[in-house]
Every structure is written in C-alpha cells, then in structure tokens.
Amino acid sequence: MYKKRLFKALILMLFAVSNMSAQKLEIADFLKAGKENANTLAEAYLSPFGEMMGRSVNGGWYSVASVHSILGIDINIGMNFAMVSSTGKEFNVNDCEMIDGWKFVDGYNMAPTIAGKMDENKRPRIAKDQGESIPLPNGMGLSMAPMPIFQAGLGLPARTDIIVRFCPQIKVADFRAGLWGIGLKHDIKEYLPIIKHLPVLHTSILLGYTKMNMNFEINKDNKQKLVTDVSGFTGRLLVGANIPFVAFYMGLGYGYAASAFDLEGTYNYGGQNFTDPISQKYTYNNFDANIGARLKFGVVTLHGDYTLGKYSMVTAGLGVAFR
C-alpha cells in the first residue's frame, strides 16, 4: 500500500496525475538489497528528477529586461517545463558499487532512471549469491518536470524592482507543498555610455532566490512520508528591446540549486525493518542563456521563453502589468 502512496506523492510533485495514474513507482523495492545498496541505486535513479526540479525553481523570474517606474506593478502566473536530455533517461549500473554480496546479473549494463522507461526483459537484475534475481524498477518516462510559478513585481526608487513569489502551505489530502522566493532587478542602462541614449534598448541585472518544500504522508501509523526540499539561486544579465505591443529579452547568467529527497519512517523488507532508509541530495549549477518575448494588450501580458543548458527549459505565462 505504501508504495502506491509513494508513487502518488511523486506524481503530485510533478503536477501530472492525469496521465500517469496507472503506472507504478517501486523505488522502495531497492531496500530488498539493503539500505546502503538502496541509496546507491536511488542516487542514480532519481538524479535527473532532482536536477530538473533544481532547474525549474530558478526559472520564470522575468518577462522583460526593463524595470518598472516607481510603484509600477506586474502580477504573473506561469509554468516552467524543465526537460531532461536523452542521456539522463538511463544510467550505467557499472557505476554503482554494490556491497554485501549483491551484484548485477544477466549482462545488461543500462538501467532506466525515473525519467526513462525500459521493457522488463531488458532491465538489469540484481541478486545475492545464488539467490533469486530481482529486476531493477522501471522508470516513469518523466522527461519533463513542470512547476507553476506565481509572482509579483513592484517598482522601487533607484530604478529597481523587488520581485516576490509565494505560495502558502497548501494541503490536499496527505500532500503539503509551499514555495517562496525573493528577487531584485536593477536597471544598469544609465551606466552604459552608448545604450543609455537608445530608448528602445534596456539592460538590467537580476538576483533571485527560491525555496520550495513538499511533504507527502505515506502511512501515518509507521510515520512513513516523503519529504522534498528544493532551493535555488540565480544571477542574470538581461538585455532587451521594448517596442509597442511586444518586448524581446535575453538573459545570460548562472544558476545554482540543491534538491533533497528523504524517505522517512519504518519499512519492512525481507524480515528487516529500515528506518529513514533513503536520503539523497543533488546539486545543479551551470551557466546558461535564454531568449523570449512578451506580448502586451493593454495591461494584459503573454510571455514565453526558452532556456539553453544541460537541462533545457520552456517557460510560459500570463499576467497584468502597470507602468
């Protein structure tokens, strides 16, 4: 029962319940090989998901390179879609060092990550000594990690915007999630001798920090739950052009993110009890670039952009903007 509830937790984190409800995620089955081996396998299995979540929290901070006038405001609802590369859909089991007599059998070297999918007869199997072999869990084909973003920006003195993104702790059945973030965008056009005389062009710098946490209760009696924390920081140089009804923008910069997944509680496999058996942490840091455009109809805006990098990302959103 708890495996099904664990699966639902991950689905809720990906905001994709509708088309995955018939699949299974059996990551807890890694415990058949013991706690240390379970963490070795889970590290490789969950890696692309952790990195995609890290990529997503750093996205969607801006839809234009310019800043507001004092007390100007914008409110945006958007969605980030971080995507895994083809190499992130599988991992080489030869890179996983097993202990206590457990080893990979049947000669297959590549296993699916959570982002991939593979027929059972092609997946590597593990066995201890001469015991029965066990196939590694299949992936879920989660090649994309969507994340909704709600945020507002306010124009301050000194050609600076403060940006706040916030979602209070929301509880749906046994699932809790919350998000907050803060950013600053400062116009540097006046510091650039040539660009400051060109009314169409705009240049600014942006710093943003986001923190997200999720908690899914799997089994209250055994205190089983999945706890996820993701935080990210990004610094960007923005360059853009504003003309009537449309603004074009480009961002260049650096992003850092950390993701932690903890399977807490007591689980029983093979007559053994495992307490807080799986804990994984991932970091993502990379220089990247994105390009996009925003359409403006009165106070209503539509924007979209594409980010290049190890994990590419598409961002789209709808908002209102004044001054």
Write the layout of secondary structure elements.
Layout: H1 2-14, H2 35-57, E1 73-83, E2 90-92, E3 102-105, E4 110-112, E5 125-128, E6 134-135, E7 144-156, E8 160-172, E9 175-187, E10 201-219, E11 224-243, E12 246-264, E13 266-269, E14 272-275, E15 278-297, E16 300-308, E17 313-322
Antiparallel strand pairs: 1-7, 1-17, 2-4, 3-5, 5-6, 7-8, 8-9, 9-10, 10-11, 11-12, 12-15, 13-14, 15-16, 16-17
In short:
By secondary structure, this protein is mainly beta. The protein is built from 2 helices and 17 strands. The chain has a 10-stranded antiparallel beta barrel. Strands 3-5-6 form a 3-stranded antiparallel β-sheet, with no helix packed on it.
Give the helix tally. 2
Q: How many β-strands, per DSSP?
A: 17
Give the proportion of residues in helices.
Answer: 10-25%
The span between the termini is 54 Å
Kindly state the mean pLDDT as a whole number? 85
Q: What structural class do helix, strand and pairing data support?
A: mainly beta
Radius of gyration: 23 Å
- The helix/strand order is HHEEEEEEEEEEEEEEEEE
Q: So what's the overall shape? A: elongated
Characterize the largest beta sheet: strand count, sense, and whether it forms a barrel: 10 strands, antiparallel, barrel
Strand content: over 45%
Low-confidence stretches: 1-25
Sheet with most strands: strand arrangement: 1-7-8-9-10-11-12-15-16-17
Report on this structure:
Mean pLDDT is 85; it is low at 1-25. This protein is mostly beta strands and 323 residues long. The N and C termini lie far apart (54 Å). The chain is built from two helices and 17 strands. The chain has a ten-stranded antiparallel beta barrel. It is elongated. A hairpin with a 4-residue loop joins strand 16 (300-308) and strand 17.
